[in-house]
Description:
16 strands, 4 helices, globular, alpha+beta, disordered C terminus
Amino acid sequence: MVILKDVATPEICDWLIARARPRLKRAQVYGYDGKDAKMLFTEERTNSECVFGTQDRDLFIAILRTRIAEAVQIPARTMEPPEVLHYSVGQEFKRHYDSPSDPSAPGIPQRVITLLLSLNEDYEGGDLVFPEFGTRRYRAPTGGACVFSCSMLHEATSVTRGKRYAFLPFFYDEAGAQQREAIARTGNVSADLAAYRA
Length: 198
């Protein structure tokens, strides 16, 4: 896990929060029932999110995607549509992996890198913890990002004061990006994901 500073300016962070706030919806997770991949609500994840699909790409998003891709040295075309995460007091995302537990599960591409860009600092709690490596809590400054492997077990602890906002894109390897595009072309996904192109 590494923390990068100055990936985004405070102004871009504020703009992302303002743009996402009216569109926030309860967050879901990928699920696999042995046959199909599905988006599910779960008690382990209680925050809300706003996905920025292809139709939402504008100059700010394009610049930010380019800066993020350069920071992690992975092509922007392998980036999943980013989302803004929102955590109010009491909300959390319990221990989980960002890649599927079954890499052969159809319909769920294998993510490889998580980048969690902090959009604000005026909250308490809401830290990242990697329990396999101890109890240390991680938090990037506003405009900074925590970058880690999607195969690392982690959690977002409960927010105890204020509201936490973060910008979250995942990255795939080339094969995963192509699989994601093929899934998007089936039409069996949300409108945000249907427009995905590697």
